[in-house]
TrEMBL record:
SMART domains: IGc2. Residues 30-120 form the Ig-like domain. This is Disorganized muscle protein 1. InterPro entries: Ig-like_dom (IPR007110), Ig-like_dom_sf (IPR036179), Ig-like_fold (IPR013783), Ig_I-set (IPR013098), Ig_sub2 (IPR003598). PANTHER family: IMMUNOGLOBULIN (PTHR47633). It comes from Toxocara canis (Canine roundworm). Gene3D superfamilies: Immunoglobulins.
């Protein structure tokens, strides 16, 4: 809570009012700005990252072939930024079977929104010409 003095210069009226900043924060259903960016990191992991506007903070779940991702191959983070959230999913040891459409779904008390991105594994020359 904060005390704020409001002065109306046209009528010389002054009043004190206690404001609760939480009351004035705009409540917002999640909305992704665009499809996730995909970054192939030097350590071999793949990072999916997207920005989500939301208030309050969203819960974000990631899906592949309509199944929610879980397990130690995946790391999920939601990081608060100025006015939005950075939502990331990191995948360890990607294989050709990991190619396909990934979906992020953000949800809060005001609603939900989803966004999709297609991942295609980048193969090295050794992987392409590997003999069985």
């Amino acid at each position: 809570m904060s005390n704020t003095t409001i002065i109306n210069h046209n009528k010389d009226i002054e009043c004190d009012r206690t404001l609760n900043n939480d009351l004035f924060a705009m409540s917002l259903a999640p909305f992704f700005e665009k499809a996730p960016s995909i970054i192939n990191k030097p350590d071999g992991t793949v990072l999916f990252e997207c920005m989500c506007n939301s208030n309050p903070e969203p819960t974000v779940k990631w899906f592949f072939k309509d199944k929610e991702l879980s397990g130690d191959r995946y790391t999920f983070k939601v990081k608060k930024m100025v006015g939005k959230y950075a939502c990331t999913m990191t995948m360890k040891n990607p294989t050709l079977q990991d190619q396909g459409v990934y979906k992020a779904v953000a949800t809060n008390k005001n609603g939900s929104h989803s966004v999709e991105q297609t991942y295609v594994k980048v193969c090295t020359g050794d992987e392409v010409f590997k003999t069985q």
